[in-house]
Amino acid sequence: AQKVTQAQTEISVVEKEDVTLDCVYETRDTTYYLFWYKQPPSGELVFLIRRNSFDEQNEISGRYSWNFQKSTSSFNFTITASQVVDSAVYFCALSEAYSYGGSQGNLIFGKGTKLSVKP
Amino acid sequence: GAVVSQHPSWVICKSGTSVKIECRSLDFQATTMFWYRQFPKQSLMLMATSNEGSKATYEQGVEKDKFLINHASLTLSTLTVTSAHPEDSSFYICSARRATPTYEQYFGPGTRLTVT
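^ Those are the sequences you sent over. The predicted structure of the assembly is below.
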């Protein structure tokens, strides 16, 4: 069965601090996708990244970076120099690989980590 | 980028009435749409998967007679909450999966349902 664990329920930091959000996943599939979404108070999910299981390269996008390690089944997310606008709930998610006419590819979400960045 | 809309964005209804929520893919065709439910301070839980032109597949514990899903076209899926009760109050989010070429999935902005 697929499962995503975000052990940190809430994190509070002061602006400009770096913060890492942990994500550990379980799956029997050899091909899968991992995602991170941001959910601000408005509720709309904001897509941050999608990574397939064959691509273990770390990724950096501005202040955001992701560390994917298959050996530990982790896909951690780091925000560098956090800002108040980063305050939101962040979800890590997993889906099986899409295949036309085959698997559905629905997302399995972790419970989310609420990040509060104080000025 | 691909856009998915939901209507209404929020709705308040009385207990016992039915509410219809629409999910539209505005600039792409979606053979598959997913409906998720999110209770306050909780994660998103998949309710059902709907494929255009066929019956929806419901997750365990989701009543198909209560949550009617219709995916009549490649750009529209509807979720009808029938005989709504206060415990159905939740945030309902749809996502649409692009048919080709990458099968990317895009989320709608969500619909907040409050049943009084």
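Chain B has a mean pLDDT of 92. The interface with chain A takes residues 32, 34, 42-46, 49, 57, 91, 93, 95, 97, 100, 103-107, 109-110, 112 of chain B (CB under 8 Å).

Shout if you want it in another format.
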